[in-house]
Specification:
By secondary structure, the protein is mainly β. Helix content is 6%, strand content 46%. It has a single domain (2-220), classed as Double-stranded beta-helix, CATH 3.60.160.10. The chain has one helix at 53-66; strands spanning 2-7, 11-16, 19-25, 29-33, 40-45, 72-78, 81-85, 91-97, 101-105, 110-114, 117-123, 135-141, 146-152, 157-160, 168-170, 175-181, 187-190, 206-210, 217-220. A six-stranded antiparallel beta sheet has the order 5-6-3-10-13-8, with no helix packed on it. It has a six-stranded antiparallel beta sheet with strand order 11-12-9-16-19-14. The longest helix has 14 residues, at 53-66. The radius of gyration is 19 Å and the shape is elongated. 34% of the residues are buried. The model is unreliable at 53-68, 126-132, 193-202 and 228-234 (pLDDT under 50).
Length: 234
């Protein structure tokens, strides 16, 4: 049995009862405690968390090609223990996925996930308008112990239209992840006119948009990645 929780907003605390495995960003471990000799160990994942070698190799190649590659380590927890993980003081957000639910997340924002998660790269077809190109990392729950911990530069905010049915529009360079049943991929809404080409751009020339019937929850960080497109004329 696993439990994911945050400590002071900046650290992931994983409590294990029995024997379990989790996957974490390589080097993210900061401390742990247990009775008796240390009963957990770390192993670098050369390809990926898939048990099938062929699938792991294909997944590794897809992540390298799309820029969604994340150095992972497997943490084997062999008995009751508490371990802690963090990444350069970034805020930690935990999500407990329901069976069949998918979180689409930028690979750089992944801190850890449990072995009840299926980890893949999925093409979403947003082209050069997205800072990450054509792909996103998709983590899908395959059991009831599917936990995912993601990283945010600053305190995140959450937008959801699951109950409200409202249209959501966000800056792709601030998106950490989105969650929903199925893929719930966004549409691209571009606002490019002749002013863009003479340097009169607003800086918000394109957005990710979800319609009111998409049933999606989006987590944003209060900072923007360097990316997207820049079109102007000197």
């Amino acid at each position: 049995m696993l439990k994911f929780e945050t400590v002071n907003e900046l650290t992931l605390k994983v409590t294990c009862s029995g024997s379990e495995e989790i996957f974490a960003k390589a080097g993210a471990f900061i401390g742990g405690e247990n009775d008796g000799p240390k009963n957990y160990k770390f192993e670098k994942m050369l390809l990926g968390p898939q048990n099938n070698l062929g699938q792991a190799l294909l997944g590794h190649l897809a992540r390298r090609i799309t820029g969604e590659n994340l150095p992972l380590m497997k943490v084997s927890l062999n008995g009751d223990s508490v371990t802690y993980y963090a990444n350069y003081g970034q805020h930690v957000v935990i999500y407990h996925l329901q069976p069949g639910e998918t979180i689409s997340v930028e690979s750089e924002n992944i801190l850890a996930f449990s072995s009840d998660c299926d980890y893949n790269v999925r093409f979403i077809g947003v082209g050069v308008l997205s800072q990450k190109g054509l792909a996103t990392t998709a983590i899908t729950a395959k059991g009831d112990q599917a936990f995912v911990a993601v990283l945010s530069n600053g305190n995140p905010i959450v937008l959801s239209n699951v109950e409200s049915g409202k249209t959501l529009s966000v800056d792709p360079d601030s998106v950490i992840c989105w969650i929903g049943n199925g893929h719930c991929d966004p549409q691209i809404q571009a606002d490019i006119s002749w002013k863009t080409f003479i340097g009169q751009t607003s800086g918000e020339s394109y957005q990710f948009e979800w319609s009111g019937n998409s049933g999606v929850t989006v987590i944003l960080q209060p900072s923007e990645r360097r990316g997207g497109i820049s079109v102007s004329m000197d």
